[in-house]
Amino acid sequence: MMKKVSLLGVPMDLGQARRGVDMGPSAMRYAGVIERLEKLGYDVRDYGNVVVDERSIEEASHENLKNLSAVVNTSIRIRETVQQMIDDEAFPLLLGGDHSMSIGTLAAITARHENLGVIWYDAHGDLNIPSTSPTGNIHGMPLAVNLGLGHELLTNIGAKKLKPENIVLIGSRDLDEGERVLIKELGIKVFTMHEVDMLGMATVMEQTLQHLAHTDGIHLSLDLDGLDPMECPGVGTPVLGGLTYRESHLAMELLAASGRVTSAEFVEVNPILDERNKTAQVAVALIASLFGDQLL
Ligand SMILES: NC(=[NH2+])NCCC[C@H](N)C(=O)O
Ligand SMILES: [Mn+2]
Ligand SMILES: [Mn+2]
Fold it and tell me: 4-290 falls under which CATH superfamily?
């Protein structure tokens, strides 16, 4: 892994309805993310937080896409900053913020890869399009957008699309009907909680890395709601029966050992719903493992 890390906070809460997730980046900074990375020997360049558009009331819901133009404007700013990070040859690490931020992150990263792989570590598929979304919340749509599906204003943010065969979902346990249809249609690789239980995380990661062996870099998009709400209560859309801290920690260690991860984002931390910043602390511990922290 590169020894230079670029950090960007995305205090975004426009992609869903519950306020507070805009404080996620502060909570992870407060939990010591920069200090942990520096201790591991990384040169950390902090880009601060991206400017996020205000919600406007008129825009509340438009074609089942809440806060559409605010999300578009913010995504473009995220894209520009991540482009700078890549130009600077640093590892882009983003802290969120709701998952709609991935539209901007991936817009920048896919452009710089021939064949980017993506691991979507999440209770959800985030594969809705406006006609299938039960909520109109854009945080339920970013993976679809990056496949080129959804409203033009969103799909146009990135020039290059992800390939369905380059995506692996891990931890899925709440998929909407339209998402299930899309997963089957496109043949996307999914390790639901059932597969994680059956195979164990070590095998899941081994098969994930095998599935992505042909890619030229892997982006990890880790939604903290992929973990169980008992350990990560500070998320807006908790789902029972999630991945444990131990499993997730192992997953991060195996990714670190593979040396294949080239960018990452840790999203959906909502300190207002949290208990004593527990979720941000889990996020920072996972980040440390992803960057090679070891006991001995
Ligand atoms: N990034 C997330 N937490 N996404 C939750 C999405 C929930 C639901 N599938 C929806 O479309 O609204
Ligand atoms: Mn989720
Ligand atoms: Mn998500």
Answer: Ureohydrolase domain (3.40.800.10)
